[in-house]
Every structure is written in C-alpha cells, then in structure tokens.
Amino acid sequence: VAISAVAGILKQLKRTHKKVPICPYEISGNPKPSGIQAGDRLDNQWLHYDSRSLPKTKEAWESCCFVEKTHWGYYTWPQTMTIYAPVEQQPKLGRKRDELTEAEQIIYDHFSDPKFVEQLIKFLSLEDRKGKDKFNPRRFCLFKGLFRNFDDAFLPVLQPHLERLVSDSHESTQRCVAEIIAGLIRGSKHWTFEKVEKLWKLLCPLLRTALSNITVETYNDWGTCIATSCESRDPRKLHWLFELLLESPLSGEGGSFVDACRLYVLQGGLAQQEWRVPELLHRLLKYLEPKLTQVYKNVRERIGSVLTYIFMIDVSLPNTAATKSPRVHEFTTRILENLKPLMEADEEIQNHVMEENGVGEQDERTQGIKLLKTILKWLMASAGRSFSTAVTEQLQLLPLFFKIAPVENDNSYDELKRDAKMCLSLMSQGLLYPQQVPLVLQVLKQTARSNSWHARYTILTYLQTMVFYNLFIFLNNEEAVNDIRWLVIKLLEDEQLEVREMAATTLSGLLQCNFLTMDGPMQTHFEQLCKMRLPKKRKRDLGSAVDTIPSGGKKIRNTRLVAHANFSPF
Known about the structure:
two-stranded antiparallel sheet; disordered C terminus
C-alpha cells in the first residue's frame, strides 16, 4: 500500500514536458500521398531503426526527432503531430534539494539515505508467496516515477545494490532487480544524452550478468522487464539495449535453457516495436536460419515463436504497401529447398534424432528432420498469432505433413508425428484465398495417389475441416466442388478399409451440409458399383493390397466394398 501511495504521489508531482508540432512529410522529404496507404512508405521510413544513423553523439541525439508512439505513421499520421521539445525548452533536470517543493524534498531525503535504501531493497527482495510471485507493476511504477521526477539523483545509492542483486540467482532478488531496471529505463525517457549514455554503460554489464543467471522461476520476470522497458519507446533511443540483446542469443553458454530464455527476452523487446525495426528482424532471421536444425525441444519451440513475430508484419491487405520486414514466402522458399531430401523420399519418415547435439557431419535426412521439427513449431505458433493465413509456399509443405501425421490419436507417438498432426489440424482451419484453392486441391489429389494409406486417410480429415472453414469460397468455385467430389468418390474405392470408412464419413458430412448433392450421376455411379460381383473369399498373401477379378481380359478393383455400414447413399 505504501509503495502504491508513493508511486501515486510521484505521478501527481510529475512535471509537464513541452511539445512542439512537426510535419512528418518535411522530415522525410516526401510529399503527402494522395490516398491512405498502410505499411512501410517513403514518408515514414525515417522512423525505422537504422544502425547506420543511430544517435550516438550529443549532436545527433538532440537533432533526432524521437517519436515514442509505435503506431504513429504506420497507417497515417495524426492531423496535428507533436513531439517533445528540445532539452533546453524542457523543465530543468538535475535539480538541487533547495529547488524542490516540500513534498519532493521528503521523498528526496529518504531515497538519498543509504540506510533507508538498503532497508527498502531488503524488503523488496523478500519472498512473499513462493512460486506465485510475479513482476510487480506497482514497484515498477515507483522506480519509474523516482527516476522520471528526480533524474539520476538516486543512481549512485542504488548502483551497489543493483550489482549485488544481478549476481544473486534467487528468485526474489532477480525479480526485484528486474523491476528496478525496468523503472530505470522507462524513467530515463527525458534525460540528457550524457546521462543516458552513462546509464547504459552501467546497465549493459548488469543485463549480461542477469541473463547468464536466469532461471526457470525468473525468465518470465526478465521477459516482462524488457517488454515493459520497450513499450511505447522510440527504438533509436534504446539502441544500446537492442544491440546487447542481439549479441549471440544462441551462444550455448549455460545450456539450451539459457539460450531459449535469451530468445524469449529478445522477443519481448522486439515485439513491442512491431514495424519500426525491420533491420533488426532481418539481422535476427539471418542469425537464426543456420541454427534452425537445433535438437533441443525448448530451443525449437522458442525459435518457432520468435519466427512468428519476425514475420508478424508481413500481411497482404488492401491498400497496404509491401513490408520492409522479412517476408514469409521468401523464407519458406528457402526452407522448401532444404527439405527436398524428405519431400522426395518415398519411405516413411521416422524420428531418429535424439535430444542431443551430435558432433561431426550429419546426413541430409537427419538435418532435414531437425529442420522440419523447428518449422512445425513455427507454423503451430503462427496459427494463433499471425495476422494472415498460410502463404502459397507453406501449402507446398502439406504432402510432407500428410506423410508424417499418424492416423490414430495416441500420446505415445513421438514429437514429430504429434506436431505434424497438430499442424495439419491448425492449417486446415485457416482462411484460404480464392487463388490458393487450386493449389491445395492439386496437393490433395497428388497425395491421394500416394503409396501410404496413412497419407490418403489424413487428406480426408484435412479436407473435412478445410471445406467447412472455407465453405463459401469453395461454393463460389464450381470447378473446386467437382474436384472435391471426384477426390472423395475416388477414395471411397480405396483398397484400404480405413480410408474407405473415412471417405464415407467425409461424403456423409458434405451431403448433410448440402456442399454436395445426391444427384442422378452420383446415384447411377453407386448403383453400378453395387452391381459388381465380389470374388470368393480366399487366403491371399500378406503383401497383397487389392482383390481383383478378371473381366473382359482386364482386372477390376474390388469397389463393392464401398457399400459398408458407415455410409448409404439412399
């Protein structure tokens, strides 16, 4: 309660900073466009993070137009756009005690007292509810208010405590220092360049130590710390932080868990910046691509999640300019090339990669399986977070997934099979663009000729969901409806009983929702099948897949089995 009260008082004592109007078109040197166009345009590229023109000197810092609101400029500009005025026009920073108000002097006296600060840090480092404590926003607001209102006055008193806390791996102490550092970064918003530069010289070593001591209990707190620090902040102001986070996140120091945590923390910072850091996203993708064959599951899952945010801004919407950030179709094209050994293989793909990084050269198949595992994690993560549906190149992965996904629901299956099944389920629920429909149907028809009955079975379960989630798109395409009708009827005559049963279930559902109708040609077709005679029961070789009977010098497939208990056309 006391912490919340002090944070509230600090907010009331906050001094108003002056703002000045600007014209974004004059800054960019480009005229105002005739209509609204969202995305990366010539008139908003000056807001992008560019390592070649970062404000690393006092002159560059003071001449840079910092825009803190992340959403400004992406769709359009505010009618009246204002930014903070230069330092000389702002309220005085670094005030002495006699320049403070009476209320400010009380706070100043307490937080300048080393004994008071020591007792406060001890209190904030106590464990309250083991396993349930989380990053506390009230404490964050307290320190944010202190450094916003009093500049860097309390930093010398806090510095030894920060250095001690980051070296302690205990959960409560790590959470405490994360709250202080987040408040410090956010509170330094209006500091002068000299003080900000000095601050980051202190913070960078502290953050490196903290990230090397990260634990299962504290990685969420550090993720929240960095995400909170980067929220509604111009990325050019935080270039020290982003460059630090991009320093070899998968270095291997500390094991796979620390690697996954570093990526998690980096993801939290970049996700807040959205469209304004395309250079950082390209650099991160270039760094991650050679490491997509990671063996450790926790690292694969984190890479999959990070890839989702890397491609988050790559959306195809009306009146939207092409993004400067990485593009999904270019990345997926490169992935397809690397997965060729698996896609061209006829035999069943088994997961024979253990959870350990082998030493020495590995064959293409092993590398392909490791890459596929990471790609599956990415596609599953994208299904629930991405702003757009699967691109054409991603749909070309479907034959590989059909070949891997198991038929039965069995938790004993390995990670590769479970993920393939889940990925197919999620992809089948995605929106298809009309131009993608022919490609998907071509893939399904190609898979229907596969030697694997598992693959033929799985395309039917995929087809059911895909049609129902895109019902009106398919109904608007007569050729697509006929292709689906042909595919289902063809699989009704499959040599494998399980495939025929699933085809019957699929046809039943399509008839019930009136996607297909039991018209004259379909009824005639089934009547002809029913008139075919079955051969007498006889023992056959285990390798025999199809019963055949001679008819006119030709062999006819045993299609009579279509008339089984699960389906009746009448």
